[in-house]
Structures are given as C-alpha cells and as structure tokens.
Specification:
Layout lengths: L2 H6 L16 H34 L2 H19 L3 E2 L2 E5 L3 E10 L5 E13 L2 H5 L2 E18 L7 H10 L14 E4 L1 E13 L4 E18 L4 E18 L32 E18 L17 E17 L2 E13 L4 E12 L3 E10 L4 E9 L9 H4 L1 E12 H7 L7 H5 L4 E11 L2 E11 L3 E10 L8 E12 H7 L14 E11 L2 E10 L2 E10 L8 E12 H5 L4 E14 L7 E13 L2 E13 L2 E9 L4 E9 L6 E12 L10 E12 L7 E13 L2 E14 L5 E7 L2 E8 L7 H10 L1 H7 L12 E10 L4 H4 L7 E10 L4 E13 L2 E13 L2 E13 L3 E3 L2 E8 L2 E9 L6 E13 L3 E6 L3 E4 L2 E5 L4 E5 L2 E5 L1 E5 L2 E8 L3 E10 L2 H5 L7 E2 L1 E10 L4 E9 L3 E2 L2 E2 L2 E10 L4 E9 L2 E10 L17 E12 L3 H5 L3 E17 L2 E16 L4 E12 L3 E3 ...
Length: 1642
Amino acid sequence: MPEEEKQDLPASATDQDGGEKENTPQGRLKRAGLLLWRWALRLTAFVFVFFLVASLLLQIPAVQTWAARQTAAFLTYSLHTKVKVDYLYLGFFNRLVLEGFYVEDYHKDTLLYSERLYATFSVNPWHLLKRRITVRSVDLEKAELYIRRDTGELQDNLSYFLDQAFGKNEKGPNKKARPLDLQVYRLGLQEIALLKNDLVQGQKLNIRLSEGEIRFDKFDLPNKYIEAGRLSFYQPFVAIEELPRHPIPGILTDTLSPTENLPVDSSLIDTVDWKFLVGDLKLKDGRFSLHNYRNAPIKTTPSDELDFLHLDVYDIMVHLCDFGIYKGEFTGAVQNISARESSGFDLQQLTANYVRVNSNTSEIMGMKLITPYSTIGDTLIFNYREWGDFNDFNDRVIMEGHINTAQVAIRDIMSFAPGLKETPFIGRNRDRIALLDGEVRGRVNSLRGRDISLQLESGLSLAGSFSSRNLAVRNEEFVNLRLDRLLTSMRTLQDLLPNVKIPQNFEKLGKVDFQGSFDGFFVDFVAFGALKTDLGGARVDMRMNLKPGRDYAQYSGRLGLQRFDLGRWSDNPQLGHITLSSEVKNGVGLTANTASAVLTAKVDSFLFRGYSYENAILNGTLNKNLFDGTFLIKDDNIDFSFKGRLDFTDSIPKYDFYADIQRLPLKPLNLSNQDFVFKGLVDLNLRNRRLADLLGEAVVKNLEIRRKDEYYRLDSVHLFSSQRPDGEKSLRIFSEVLTADIQGTFQVDQLHKPFLWYFTKNYPEFSSRLGFNPEKQQPTADKFAFDIQIDDSKNLMQLLDPKLDTIRRASIAGMVNSISDSLELEVELPSLKYDNLRFNDVILIAESQGDQGNFDLAVNNTVIGDETSLAPIALLSLLNRDTVEFFVTYATHSFSIFDNLNLNGKVFLVGEKQYEINFSNSNLIIWKDLWNIDPGNFIRFGGGAIETDDFYLTSGERIITLESLGKRGLQLDLKRFGFKFIDDVWDYDLLDFDGAFNLTAEVQDIFKLTGLKVEVQSDTFLVNQDNWGKFNLSASAEDIKHQMLARMSIANGDAVLTADGHYNPPNAISQTGTAEPLKSNYFNAAVQIESFPLDIAEYFIGTAVSNTQGHFDADLNIFGEPSKVNIFGNGNLTGQTTIDYLGTTYWFTNGQVRIDNRLFDAGGAQLLDKYNNVAIVTGGITHDHLKNLGVNASLRAPRFLVLDTDKNDNPLYYGHAIADGYVRFNGSFENTDINVDATSLEGTHITIPVTGDASASKIDFIRFVNKENEKKEETGTVEAPSGLEVNLNLTLTDQAQMNLIFDEVAGDAIKGSGEGNVQIRLTRAGNLSMFGDYQISGGEYLFTWLNFVNKPFNIQRGGTIRWTGDPFQAEINIEAEYRGLTAPPANFIQEYLQALGDSDLSTQARSSTQVDLTMKLQGPLLKPVINFDISFPQLSGQLKNYTDNKLRLLKQDQNELNRQVFGLIVVGQFLPSDLNAGQTGEIPINTITEFLSNQLSVLLTELLSEVFTDVGFISGIDFDISYHRYSTGANAGDNSFVRGNELQLQLKQQFFNDRLSVRVGSSIDIDGTSYNASASGAFVAGDLVIEYTLTKDRRWRLRLYNRIEPDLAGQRRTRYGTGISYRREFHNWAEVKASMKKAARQ
C-alpha cells in the first residue's frame, strides 16, 4: 500500500501495537469503506455544485429557453407526442413554472393547453432514475383539455395519450416500456375547461371550472387510482349534449355503452376504469346543462316543465363526504345538495346517510329531500337498466319508496312525471300538498302501494293499498284499490275522470266517504262498499263501464240508499230523504235517450213535501226512453198502483198507463192545505210532446173526493183530443158535471194568449197602464169557438171554495178570432151562491170588433142571507179604444146601502199617465136616503198625482166629502152618520149598534199610502139601546207597512173604558231610527175599565142568566194577531145575577177575576144565595183567544140553594132544593151543560108532574090521564130551554119531600119522603130521562075521584119508585093505607047475619069499627095495577070469623071487592049484597056529603096554611072533615034495620120542619043511633097521635097515642100507648154486620 494511502486511513485502522494490519481482510475492508465514503462526499459535493450551477444557469434567459426546448423534447420523446413549452423556470430544483404548455394528440390537434402551470416538487435523483416525479403542489391556470374521438376510433385522444405515456402495453423486441410514476399532492385550478366530443357515442361534454382545489392523498395514474382528502370547486359548469351515435361496425351498437362489446384486449377499451375516493367535496354555485338532441332534437315541452332530455340546472351546491367512484358507481354520504332547474323545480335540500348511484340503480338511504313545496323522508330507490331509462321515466324506472309522513307537492311529482299533467285533477291541483305515508314500489305506470295513507289539500284522502297500471297514460289508467277509507269530493272525481262527463247532479254529493274496493279503469270499474255523502249514505255493489261514453255506458249491480237527500239532488225543495234498496240488470246508457235496464226497487221511506212515503215497490224495464212496469205503494195514508208504459222513444211521446188510486189524501201528504182524499181509476192513452199538442183519450172513472165527512163523486170523466187534416183541433170533455167543446185552431196550454193579445192590441193604453205585457208574437192562427155547459156541479164547487155553492144549468160560450180581430163571450148563470150571497139570473155579454165593443153585466136578483133581497142591478158599458162609458142601474125596496142607483159616468185617459172619472148627475139612494152628486165632480189620478174637485154627496144633514190633500193625498169626511151600519156589516144577533158619529180619514200619499190618519167622534154610543156614553177613536200610521198607533175611549159618567195600543200590518217595518224588527199583523193594546155595568155580560150569555146587576173593573193587555187574540189581565166584579133555569139568584162582592187566553178565572170567589149560604167558585168563563165563549165553572158548598123554581119556571120539575154538593156549568154559551151533584138537605121539596093534562075523567078503576096518549107522541119528549143540557145527580134523603103530581086540579098526587139516588137528564133536544130508585119512608097518596072525592092514603114504609129512562114509564111499587076509616061490618057480612038470626050479634055488627083499607100500586106509573085489601083489626070472635070468610071470598071476586072499596071510599060504608031502595038513597047523599066534605077539607087546609105561613115553627097543616049516613038491616021495617049519621073530624099539624106532628081525630054520632036504637043523645069519641123525630136524619122517632076502640060488650074504650122506633136501611146483610161492629167499637 502506498504511503500516502496509509496516511489517509484513520487512526483506528492501525493496531494498537503500532503494527500494520494492511494485509488482513479487516484492513482491506476498512480501507474500502473509507474510499467509498470519500467518493460519496465527492459525489454529493458534485451534485450540489451541479444543481447550483444549473440553477444559476437557469436564471439566464438563454438557458431557460434552452431548458424549455430540452424539456419539450424530453416530454415529446417520453409521451410519444409533440409537447411544446413556451417558457420554463426551475427554481432551485423544487419549483417549476411552465408557460404556454402545449400537448398535441395523435390527430395533430390540441390535447392539452395551459397558459401557466406552477408546481412545487421534490428533486430526488434516485426517483428521476426510476421515472418517478413527486409534485407537491400544482396550480393550473387557464388550462383546457380537449377530448376527442372521431368516427371509427376505438379510443378517444386522451385515453390513447395516457396509454402511450403511462401504459404498460407497449412492447418491443429489444426493450421493455416503463411508465412515468407521477405523484401529485395538491392541484389548484383556475379557469379550467374540459371539452369532449365523442362522435362514436354521440356525446359532447363541456366542463368548466372557475376555481377549484384538490388535495390528493394518493395519486396513481398508471393504476387509475386517485384518493383525495378534500375537493372544493367554485362555479363549475357542466354541459352535455347527446347527439346521434356512430358506432363501430361489429364492435359497438346503438344500444351499447362505450364500454361494452369491445375486443378481447381490454386495454384498448377499458380506458376510464378509474377509482376515485374522496373524503370531503364541496361544490358551490355550479351549473349543469343536458340536451339530448339524439332523442329530442327540438325541445317541445313547456318552459315550466322539467324535461329530462333538456335540463338546465343552476345554483348547484354540493357537499359530499366519504364517497367514491369506481367502475361507474358512486357511493357516499350526502351532507347537502341543492339546485334549481330552469323549469322552476327547486331542490332546497337533499341529505342522505348513504347514497349509491350506478348505471342500474340509485339508492338513497336515510334521505331527507326538501323543496319549497315538499318534504320527503326515509328511503328512495330507483332501479333501471341504464341511464337512458330516465328518458322514459314512467315505464323504465322502477321506484321503491319507504315514506314516513312525507309532504309531496303535486307540482314536484309532475316534474318527474310530466305525463300526469294531462290529468286535469293533477294539473288543477299542482300547487296542492299531498301527505303521503306507506310503501310504494314499481314504475309510474305499474305502481303498487301498501299501507298507503294519502291526503290532498284539495279534498282527497285515502287509506289502504293499491296496485295500478298506466297512471300516466291517459284513458288507460287502471287501479285496484282496497280502501280502508276514501274521503274526496265529486269535483275531485270529475277532475280524475276528465273523459267522463259526470252529470251535474253528482256534484251535489259533495264530500264522499267510501269504504270498500275499487277495481278497474277509471272508466270501467267495479265498486263495492259503503258510501257516505253530503246527501246521504249508500251501499254499492256495482259494475260500470264508462268507456263507451255516457250514452252507452254499461252498468249492473245493486244500490242501496240510506236517508239520501233527493231534494238537494234534484233542486226540488219538495223532495226529502229516501231510503231504498234496488237492483239494476243489463244497464246501458246514462242519458234519457239511451238508458236501458231492468229495474227492481223497494222504497222503505221517501219524503215528499214533508210526508214520508213507505213500502213502495217498483218493477219494470227501461229501454231508452221507454219505461214499462209497475209501481205500488201502500202505507197508512196512501194506496196507489200504476201499470203501464211511458214511451219517449219516438219523436212523439206516448203515455199509455192505468192507475188505481184507492186512497190519496192530499192534506196528510202535504199536497194541499185542503183535506181532500182522492179515489179513482185513471186510464190514459195520449201522445205528443207538448201539453198543447196532446192527442188521444183520457178516462177517469169512479172518482171520489172526500173532505172530512163530505163526499164528492164523479162516475166518469172522458177527455178526447183530436186533430183534423186541415190542422183544426177538437177538445171535448164529457162528465155528469159538465160538457165542454172547443173547436178550431188553438193550443191547450195557451188558450189565454189570444185574449191577452186582443186586449193589448185594441186597448193599448189601458193595457199599458194596467201592466199587461203584450205578447211578443201575434197568435195569428188562433181561431176557435168554445161551448161549456155546466149541468150540475153537484158539490164540487166547494172544492174550490167551501163558500161556493152548486152551479146548475150554466152556460159559457164564445169565440175568439185573431185573424178577424174579434171577440165574443156570453155567460148565463141561473144561480150563483157564494157564502150568504146568492146571485140569481146572472148574464154577461161581451162583444168586440177591433177597438169597438160593449160589456154588459146583469144580475136579476141578489139575496143576502135568507131574507135580504136586492133588486136587479145592471152594468152597461161601451168601449171605444181607450174610453169607457158606463151606466149602472139598481133599485130596491128593502134595506141596503144603495137603495136606488142610476149612475152614469165616463172613464177616459188624460195625458200620458192619468185616468179621469166623471160621474153624471144621478139618482142615488144610500141607506134609504136620496143623495145628490155635484155635477162638476171628477177624480183624476195617475202619474203619481191625484186630484178631486166638487166631489160632494149630500143627504139631509149627512155629508160625504172627498177632497184633495196636496198633490198626492185625499181626505174623506163623513158627518152625522150612524153606528147602525155596523149591524149591516157585522151580522151578530146579540149586539145592536146605534148613535151618530163624525169620521175624518186622511191619506197624505194615496199612491204610497203614507200619512194615514183616522178620527171618529160620537156623543152617544148605543149598544142594544143602552147608552155607553161618548165614543172617541183616533189612529195614525206612517204608511200601511208601518205601525199604526190608536187610542179609543168610551165614557159615561163613572163608567170609563180606555184602550191605547198599536197595530203592525202584514210585512210591517220598524219606525225610522229603530232597528228592532216588528211582528207582522200584530196588535197590542192596554185596556183599562172602570165601573162598567156588569149587565153587558147578558149580551153574550143570552138567556142563561138575567137580572144581572153591578159593575166591574179591569186592567187588561190585549195583543196578538187579529185571528188569534191574546188577553191577559185582572178584573173585579161586584153584583148579582140569576141563573134562569135554576131560578137561583147569587150575589158576589169583590170577586177577583184572572184573565188569560183560555179563561176568565173567578176561582176562589164566593157566591151567596138568598139565605146567605156561601159557595166557592171554581173556574169561570172559557174562551179561545176571545172566541168560542163558554163556561167551565162549578159551585161547591156544604149547604146551598141549588133550585128555586115553580111550575111556571119549569113545568118538567120544580121546587126548592137545598143541598150539599156542587153545581158544574160547562160548554159554550149556545150549548151549556149544567151538572148538579148534590145531597138533599132539610127544606128541600121537589115536584115532578108526570102529566100536563088538567082534565078529569071517570075512574076505571084508577086511570091516569095523559095528553101524550091522545096525541100518540113519544112519551117523555117535552120542550126544554134551547141550548141547555141538564144533568141532576141527586142523593135524596128523608129530609127532602118528593111530590109526584098526577092530576094537579084534582089533587091526585103522591107526597112523601124517603131515600134514594135519582139521575135526571134533560137534553138539548128536549128529551127528559130519569134513572134511579127512590124508597119511600113515609108519605101520603091523595086518592081522587071525579074531583068529588079526595081520600088521603098513608104510604107505608118500603114502597119504591124506579125510573129507567122515560119518566112517565117509571115502575111503582107502593102500599098506601087509608087510616081513620070506621064502618059497621053488618052490610059486609049481611048474609051471615041473616042466616044466623042472632040479634045480639047483629046489634054488635051494626056498631062502627075500625076498617083498614090498604091500596097496592104496582107496575107503570101512569097505568099501575091497583089492588086493595080490607081488614078489621079491632074485631074478634064470630064477627072476626065472618069478616075473614067474606074477605077470602072477595079476593076471588075482584069486582065485588072493588064495589066494597067504592062503598067505603065514596059512601063511607059497606054495600050490602042485596042493596034495597032505602039503602040506595043513602049513596047519593053520602056521595054529595063526601064531595062537600072533601072540598071543605081542602079549603080549610089552604086557609089555615095561609094563616100560619109566617109562623116559623109551623111547617104544615092538614084538615079533613067528612059526613056519612049509613043503615044496616034488610029493610026499614025490620027490627034489625038501623040508620045513623056520623060526622068525622081530623086535624094534622106539623111543626119545626116536620120534626113534630100532632094528629087529632073525632067522630060524632049525630042522632045517637050508632050503637043501639034505644040510646039517645050524641057520643063523641076522639083519637090523638103525637110523633117527634129525635134526630135530624129521622132515624129515631118517639110516638105517643090515644085512641077510642070498641070492646067486647059493644061499647068503646080508650087505649093509651107510647113507643120509640129506629129505622135505617141496609142494602145487604154485610152492611148490617159492619154497622153492628162499628157500634160495638164505639
């Protein structure tokens, strides 16, 4: 080793001993390392110096120019293409500036040009050796990249350049190509452009960027892999134009993308298989343009429609995170995307958690899309085969959406499916929002949905599922809907079905709520479900095909309606709700001209004019305009059936049907206010379109019209209508009521027009002023004659007006000729009655030719009511154009307002608008007085003004004046008139008016009827000739529609009546300045009455009461409508009145009366009878709003006088009744019911005459005389007070005395007391009836014979009288005993005494003894069966045996028994069997003495009664005196013959209302022969009976007696006695036991 080398070694290279180790391996290695280090230092220094020198050299312009050329040459060599650099600057080998950088493609055209490029890089020689360049930052300014591929080329110029520059596919036999490894970490861009023109794919691309920056994490161009951490672009612009393609034959086709079907060598084709990964991308203010001229050379869509073939998107803002692009697929997350398109679509926000987009699908997960109108969330997926499918979005793009409460604007949907715009509903609702929820899958034209909820602001809401086809294909939309609920409207449905003309009525359904299913096209579907609309509900199971249009639409199925509002449906307010079920089969056509179907319907209910029809059935067929079928309906009111045809198929309709009307009531059906019920058969066979042209026949049979209980019948009505060949028509009507015949040229429905035309033509001024509108077209063809004969209208005229009477033999005839301008009319009415007016012999004749004519009317006789008859009246008039001269004549001799009238005058026109009437001096009699008319009078009116002059009517002191009041007003004055005219106007029999008055009436404006005022004054106002005093009335109103204020007063001394009030006319309006509405036709008056005489009540009550005295005060409020007056208030009555029928007078003091609309209530008031007994009043005078006056009142009292009449007041029954009970008055004043329910009290005595005949006749044996038998009239029918019905329910006690009078003159009567219940009814028809049982407890029957004999029989207890209706047919069953009768039994048992020959027994038989004569009356009251019985209570021994034997024989011989009774009653002794001459003479003597004694007894009784009338404790006196002459024995010469004279006296006196009675009786033997022949002088014997009633109910009685009776020795002896009796009646044994138990408890 050289020395110098050694010196260079480091110290360590020597061994530590100083020895050399150079030759060792370690030494050699050490030396090599040192050498390498030295060279490395040298090389570094060289390189540093080199680059330093190079850098310094590059600062020299010449060197830079050289470097640029070298660099361009190098790149040209490396890139295999021409590269040009205008300027190059390399700063210290880490910075590079290139200017004018140009790269040429293989077409010798520009591939890349950059005006300036600034780069910073890292210089690493090693990397350079490895063809690796590391660029830290590149700023590219104003750079343009041109990509180009011409026809027939497999690659574009950029792909070819990259393959040549960086590819690995270039091979040579001697070398291997190495691509350039370029690493870039930042790229800045300013004003960059990329232009692409691919003629093979037919695509032009223009991308421009204003500013941008890319920061790369990895940049691998050879492997086509770029990873960037951040990208930001400002104002990017992308424009794409799709042009016609020029594919390479055999390799590319028109339908393939550039990456398909290339040769096997994929390196030639896969030139854009890049992979991009980006961490964050932001794009601002971008713009995108797409024009597909390949498929749409010209833009044909409107400017406001999103066109995917021609897009112009601007204001693009993009923010993406973590996305990548690889093999045509984009994935990543969208922070926000917003953009706007020139059509108006505005994407405000689009975010997504994950996005994947490739050539087959676009997925957006966790999406939120917001536009100005829509908000869509959740998931949205689009599947397609290629990008071009978006050009046919409706059919090629498959959508899948999971939408959660999205708000989608219709206009946004239209942006993606513009074909929907063809649907009017979509177009009209483009600004509406749809609320959408659910899942949607499929293409637009094959869309399916599940759990869909859709709501539109326009009124469409649905929930359910669906599938569809061709939604965007007009007229081919098909939908399968399963609707949980569909809410919409008919207008919405019309918009959805633009080609279906839904009838206008369907729009009235309004809102539609449907649940069910809908399957089919919009014009051919099946609907099933329940439907609710604004008009009602429906159930539908219907198939409908609307494709053929409305005329030929096909349908069938079932339809049910529930409370469907048919009135609103048809715009007919008379119709109401309908409920029905129906079935339609084989239905075709929805118009009247095309509809045909088989119909079946059942109407459960149908409301028409407020009536609900039920149970209606319709069956039939509809064929175009022909209906053939039946219709039946039957419910509680209507029974109707129809069968026939309605044929509208031809140009001339035909009506051929038969209707059977069993019951058709108009009022319940609300068809008329009249209560009409129709029944009949209708048979029609008519034809023609218009009513005027109907031809054929119509028959109505058995027509019956009923109104309440009135029947109107027509057997038949026939109508015939025909037309002759010459055009003339004939209309004939036949019925039993009338016949009508119209012949000529006319139209039935316009028969009035020729008359109207004639009048307006010939009398134009009158027509114009009367407001007649002239016909627009002259009926030139009208020429007809008519003849109507009314044979007998029966009662049919009352159908028009109940007040219109039957018309018979009337004639109406005439003619009208529009051609000759003539008119004739003649009417003859033999009689015309309306209400109480009858017009007899009415004749009307009118003839006119042109404007000249006459009009004459004559009424031969007018009858008012049944009495007033008016004289003939005639009106004659001449018509001359517009002037009418008239003459009215009338004369009568009966009372009338106008008694004699001959009035001439003229009516003519003045000026343009006025009429003037002049009355000539005429003979005018008003109210039977002659009135003079001033000859210069006139009334001129019209044109808003009225004027009168010299219009005076005078008659004596009375004056009628009519004067002008300004230009528009009138004033009428009546002076010194009488109120009596009210009786003529108001037919009210109960009131008569009289008195003189003056009246002034003013109208400020007669045309508007404003300024109304009336004043009436009278000093004497008479009602029923009673002076009510001064009468004043004043009333005023602003006009007839404003409120009228009125005040009335009637004053007569202290009696004052005042009324202040107002009246609102119909359609009244409020006073000026007030807004409160007024009630129409309403009045309100405050009435105050002070001290008015009470007897005015008799005006209204009539004969029910009399002798009314006193006065009343009242404070009333009377208001309401005149037809329904309301009254409220209070009154006070003081006075008295007598109820005529009861004969009772009652007094009342300060009786308070409460008044309302139903009752003048005097409840609580007290009435006093003449004994000052008090009764409480309940109720009062009834009325119905001051109409239908009546009474509903009762009197209740524990003791009250309820009857106080005598036979002159009421011959049916009369008496004096004091009772405990009540009297009820009920009914109208015309028909009052009096019901008495009372229990008789002490002091009551009632007399009932059972016959009204006062004649006497022979007894046979006893016979009651009744004049009704002679007249042979119905027994029990008597006259009764008119209008009264009396019902007496009497509980009679033995305190009341009942008297039945058989013969008042003879005194034949039953008088007694007892107990019982008796009902007496007297009807208004005068029928008297009695019911009940009366049990006699005691009394007297006065037996009479020929008015000579009057014998009182004492009625025994237990006798009964029973009434069962007819009071004269009562059943009597009583026993009466003739007491105090004495007679010797010798004549009675004469045959026994003669046979015995016992003188002592005969002497004993000749002594008078007590004889009990009992009479039994049984059977009818007027013809009772009379039986007598005789007994001898004081006889004994043999005489008793003989009399008993004789009585047994007499009971078998009724005639002999009656003869003995006759002897006892008339003669006063028994009649012997062999009556001799001597005894016969005694009979007339005893008869005469009996008559004289009877009359003397009656006379003394009446005399004593009158004497002791004022003695209060004596209640009755009865005196009886009789004289008898008798004899016994066979003849006067026989020793047994005895003759005697006996005088009997008896006095009965009653005290203390009959509680104490004393009877004293004596007999005097005048000649002393009563006991034996040898006796001398008179013997006086007497009887005494005293009886006292211990209790008021007369059950306990005390009796004391003393009587003389014979003894066994033939003498008389005195017997004394006393006793107590108790009597009570029981109906059955159970009452007896109950009474005993009650007594024991007490």
